[in-house]
Design brief:
The protein is an alpha/beta fold and 235 residues long. It starts with a helix and ends in a 7-residue tail after the last helix. The longest helix is centred in the middle third of the chain and has 25 residues. The protein has one domain: Undecaprenyl pyrophosphate synthetase (3-Layer(aba) Sandwich), CATH 3.40.1180.10. The model has no long low-confidence stretch (mean pLDDT 94). The protein has a six-stranded parallel beta sheet, with helices on both faces. The relative contact order is 0.19. Helix content is 45%, strand content 15%.
Length: 235
């Protein structure tokens, strides 16, 4: 662990991870696409463990977007099963480590078996307080905002009564602070529908390394970059 990293108490409270580059990593190594996703999931486990070790309180992982359904049927099916296995394993680990699991996104649009596993994860970890891990799955920022406004309409909230706080209370991230830092691996410099409402003052970092190669050292480099930023928050 970097001495600079541990010597400064300037770690982000809430980190967003856009885990990009699994397929490109596999292609570069002459492997099947599925192997990239498998390695990517293994990397999620490692980075979440290290984030907790460092004392980071909230991590949001962009696992599967509303746009990802456009991918091939075999790839989507594999990802759903991979995330089901991941959630099953992580639930047991989360209970031991005091981690609360939350889901961002439209859970009803997922396969039933995955829905059941995710609901069990939420139930078994709901009282854990050491760390929060948000899994954004079947998530899209515009979809989240649309669902929030539908909720307000169904509650017959008058236009003049709508406030930013009321909108916040109807988002998937209700009760959570906005992300301080968002990391997107693989060099693409865009958010791709990830937390557009919440990310207005997030520091952004776009390393070229593909997600399966984003190890602890790469995470430290990212956090050191965050420590260099001057966060004025509009002031």
């Amino acid at each position: 662990m970097s001495k600079l990293l541990t010597s400064q108490n300037i770690l982000p409270y809430h980190i967003g991870l856009i885990i990009d580059g699994n397929r490109r990593w596999a292609k570069a190594k002459g492997l099947a696409t599925f192997m990239g996703h498998k390695k990517g999931v293994e990397r999620i486990e490692e980075i979440l463990d290290y984030a907790q070790e460092l004392g980071i309180k909230i991590v949001t992982v962009y696992a599967f977007s509303t746009e990802n359904w456009k991918r091939g049927e075999k790839e989507v099916h594999y990802l759903m099963k991979l995330y089901e296995d991941f959630a099953t394993k992580q639930t047991a680990e989360a209970v031991k480590k005091g981690v609360k699991i939350r889901i961002l996104g439209n859970i009803k649009g997922l396969p039933l078996s995955l829905q059941l596993v995710l609901k069990k994860a939420i139930k078994l970890t709901k009282n854990k307080q050491r760390m929060i891990v948000n899994i954004a799955i079947n998530y899209g920022g515009r979809d989240e905002i649309t669902r929030a406004f539908r909720s307000l309409a169904q509650a017959k909230v008058k236009p003049k009564e709508i406030t930013e706080e009321l909108i916040n209370q109807n988002l998937d991230t209700v009760g959570l602070p906005d992300p301080d830092f968002i990391i997107r691996t693989s060099g693409e410099q865009r958010l791709s529908n990830f937390l557009p409402w919440q990310a207005i003052y997030s520091e952004l970092y776009f390393p070229k390394v593909h997600w399966p190669d984003f190890d602890k050292r790469q995470f430290e480099i990212a956090l050191l970059e965050f420590q260099k930023r001057a966060r004025r928050l509009g002031q």
